[in-house]
């Protein structure tokens, strides 16, 4: 479960970073059990933004902007980049280049893909090399940064230093930053855990691969699906297109300033229900579910299960009002 956090660039008179996110309601979710909770934080230079009401109006009315995406080659970025290019923005991906910068999606024609591919620029580099980040970005005058793979604040500092005139800095964090609690769902005002390791999108990307392997690979092989304990633990899932759309709607939206919103779906699902939903979605028969006690096994450095072994979901009431 993730929560995008929108950061807005501090004005010269202000200090620090104000945490905010998306105000408007995102488009209808593409997932039956949509619910990755997103927390967006915006850091924004003091500027007289004119609110047009709805988020879609803001996007339509906004002029083309020069955008930088930190990461962007997988998961959220695959869809976010397309949406931004379709809106007419100039998009540059900052990535190491170890994976293909763009990829053709199922159902996308070769012509559509080639047009999209030719519109995306690539700045090759390692974001952990702060000197390179500062020197390479300083002269490029990006107006907005989408940071979807940052993990620590030290990774954002060189970017902010190199781009002092940013209009927005949009950072995607994780809902794992909420402090563990027996009270559900999580609200935006809930206490956060300063020791949380779920701050960045990079960990979420690797976790996504693990979840796919756990369910769909086993279904494809005709193997049972192991579920910890009772299997009635309630969780949330989401679709990357929903998150990408939410990020686009944040662009130039003054309503997002100094607010926090959970972006999620209205339905929850149990672990057992998730296994059955995966089987149904992939066209398999009712899966064989085997419950186990994780404490009775030694998993080494691997996780006993791709989800937290507890009830974990968040309220979306604020984001849908």
UniProtKB/TrEMBL annotation:
Residues 1-23 are annotated as: Disordered. It comes from the Eukaryota. Residues 215-263 form the NAD-dependent epimerase/dehydratase domain. Residues 8-23 have a biased composition (Polar residues). Gene3D superfamilies: NAD(P)-binding Rossmann-like Domain. This is NAD-dependent epimerase/dehydratase domain-containing protein.
